[in-house]
């Protein structure tokens, strides 16, 4: 039997939703992760200290006794400034910027990326040492949206050299290459983008549960992401982008974007890293890099995984997970908090 013990696993891009959905999905992440960066794209989005604090309380209520830190974010608005952000800086782990209308619940995001217009808000984040997480896609052709956004990432990285910029859920070889050109650019990578390409989504019968934004790309893109993750590239972190939608919103015309991976993420990552002989690098990808990049000190948690297969449930509540009904070669054997 092969095993790995992960310390303080972190999911640096997680959608927990609200209400009944929050109560179903939050305990699943809180069981195996020490903490997660919580995305603010609720309806309405989290845009002030009061709603951020109230949402954090609802998350803590939903996870019960689990040891888990919800690292909170705010939905970026160009009108944010130092006076607005400074009083909540201690409670904010990051601010998340969405281009307007690019993905689920992002209608109130940014249109156009005029550096001078963004200067007060981004200057304030830079001064306060709050990282900016960006969903980097243009409104162009769907396969080119992320590639077209790379120059915007680079212009922002140059204009705000002291601002930590996280390229969220990168899906292309171009984004991986950009990491090495700018000291202040970092990235998260999802589980599903390490495993699938567009072929898995739409190459055969349409697979709505693998449909997400950004859409999975080409084999050479997946290869570049995989190399960065497996080699424990110091600027990449695991962010599941686990994005639950009820089954009826996925299995229909107008299928919502999002892959639900939170409950199976660590076993599937362990299987992937083991298959490539890189298990020793998983700790960097799922925790150490994020702790260093964000300056986090997450609650202690040890997760022991072994190569004992698990059968993935067909559903968690009304949500169909990735690999529903299939077997994963690894499973969580024990979780302990010190
Ligand atoms: C996310 C969601 O459903 O909130 N969907 C997705 O396809 N990833 C939003 C996002 O991160 O783009
Ligand atoms: Zn997301």
Description:
- The protein is of the alpha/beta class.
- The chain has one domain (3-336): TIM Barrel.
- The chain contains 12 helices and 13 strands.
- It has helices spanning 19-32, 49-63, 82-85, 115-128, 145-159, 173-179, 192-195, 198-203, 219-230, 247-250, 265-275, 282-294; strands spanning 3-7, 10-14, 35-38, 69-75, 94-97, 132-134, 165-167, 185-189, 236-238, 302-306, 310-311, 327-328, 331-336.
- Strands 2-3-4-5-6-7-8-9 form an 8-stranded parallel β-sheet. The protein has a 3-stranded antiparallel β-sheet with strand order 1-10-13, with helices on one face. It has a two-stranded antiparallel sheet with strand order 11-12.
- Helix 6 links the parallel strand 7 and strand 8 (185-189).
- The relative contact order is 0.16.
- The mean pLDDT is 98.
Key attributes of the depicted protein:
338 residues; alpha/beta; TIM Barrel; 3-stranded antiparallel β-sheet; binds N-carbamoyl-L-aspartate; binds zinc ion
Written as H for each helix and E for each strand, in order along the chain, the element string is EEHEHEHEHEHEHEHHHEHHHEEEE
CATH architecture: Alpha-Beta Barrel
Structural class: alpha/beta
Number of helices: 12
Which sheet architecture does the biggest sheet show? Answer: 8 strands, parallel
Mean model confidence by pLDDT: 98
Write the layout of secondary structure elements.
Blueprint lengths: L2 E5 L2 E5 L4 H14 L2 E4 L10 H15 L5 E7 L6 H4 L8 E4 L17 H14 L3 E3 L10 H15 L5 E3 L5 H7 L5 E5 L2 H4 L2 H6 L15 H12 L5 E3 L8 H4 L14 H11 L6 H13 L7 E5 L3 E2 L15 E2 L2 E6 L2
Parallel strand pairs: 2-3, 3-4, 4-5, 5-6, 6-7, 7-8, 8-9
Antiparallel strand pairs: 1-10, 10-13, 11-12
Helix pairs in contact: 1-2
Bound molecules: N-carbamoyl-L-aspartate and zinc ion (ZN).
N-carbamoyl-L-aspartate binds next to loops.
């Amino acid at each position: 039997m092969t095993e790995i013990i992960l310390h303080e696993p972190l999911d640096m891009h997680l959608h927990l939703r609200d209400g009944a959905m929050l109560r179903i999905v939050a305990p699943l992440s809180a069981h195996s992760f020490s903490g997660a960066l919580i995305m603010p794209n609720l309806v309405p989005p989290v845009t002030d200290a009061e709603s951020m604090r109230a949402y954090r309380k609802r998350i803590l209520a939903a996870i019960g006794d689990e040891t888990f830190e919800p690292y909170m974010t705010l939905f970026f608005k160009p009108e944010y400034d130092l006076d607005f952000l400074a009083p909540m800086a201690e409670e904010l782990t990051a601010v998340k910027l969405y281009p307007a209308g690019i993905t689920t619940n992002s209608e109130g995001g940014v249109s156009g990326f005029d550096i001078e217009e963004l200067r007060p808000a981004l200057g304030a984040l830079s001064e306060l040492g709050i990282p900016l997480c960006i969903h980097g896609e243009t409104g162009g052709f769907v396969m080119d949206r992320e590639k077209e956004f790379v120059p915007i990432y680079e212009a922002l990285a140059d204009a705000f050299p002291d601002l930590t910029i996280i390229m969220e859920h990168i899906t292309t070889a171009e984004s991986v290459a950009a990491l090495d050109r700018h000291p202040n650019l970092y990235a998260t990578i999802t589980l599903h983008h390490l495993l699938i390409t567009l072929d898995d989504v739409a190459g055969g019968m349409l697979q709505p549960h693998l449909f997400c934004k950004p859409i999975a790309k080409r084999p050479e893109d997946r290869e570049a992401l995989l190399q960065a993750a497996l080699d424990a590239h110091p600027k990449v972190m695991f962010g599941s982008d686990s994005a639950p939608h009820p089954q009826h919103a996925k299995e229909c015309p107008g299928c919502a974007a999002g892959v639900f991976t939170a409950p199976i993420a660590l076993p599937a990552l362990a299987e992937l890293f083991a298959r490539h002989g890189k298990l020793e690098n998983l700790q960097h990808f799922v925790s150490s890099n994020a702790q260093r990049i964000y300056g986090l000190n997450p609650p202690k948690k040890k997760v022991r995984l072994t190569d004992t297969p698990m059968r993935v449930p067909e559903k968690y509540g009304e949500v169909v997970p990735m690999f529903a009904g299939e077997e994963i070669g690894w499973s969580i054997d024990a979780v302990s908090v010190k």
